[in-house]
Amino acid sequence: MVLENSISAELLLAGRILFGLVIAFTGLNHFLDAESMIGYAEAKGVPAASLAIPVSGAVLLFGGLGIVLGVFPVLAAAVLVVFFVVVTPKMHDFWNVPEDQKQGEINSFLKNVGLLGASLVFLALGVSSWPYAVNLGLF
């Protein structure tokens, strides 16, 4: 894919920055608020939650920063796709929670579905030339 003009390139950059920084901040939060995240993961039945939280934080940091910087963007996007496909139904199983928790879980589930969709878009962009990127891992 070749972007046809600089406005398209700048829009892609803005989208990469917005999306990637939100994802990276979420990953950073896995380290800054690890105790409560581990507790939540344990409550959801995640095995080895004390290991899963920092690993998932690292995945989100790698994926988010990879998209922002254009560093191994296909790998970054693919990792995020797998993350959202695996984590979303496990952590936001709105169909299994009490009524008073249902709306919050539905909102989190739908947010993650939207992030999955954006990750798929970045994956579809492939290794085409990303303007304003470090271009590490691009051909």
TrEMBL record:
It comes from the Archaea. It is found in: Membrane. The chain crosses the membrane at residues 12-32, 59-88, 109-133. One of its GO terms (cellular component) is membrane. It is a multi-pass membrane protein. The keyword rRNA processing does not apply. This is Quinol oxidase. It comes from Halostagnicola larsenii XH-48. The lineage of its organism: Archaea, Methanobacteriati, Methanobacteriota, Stenosarchaea group, Halobacteria.
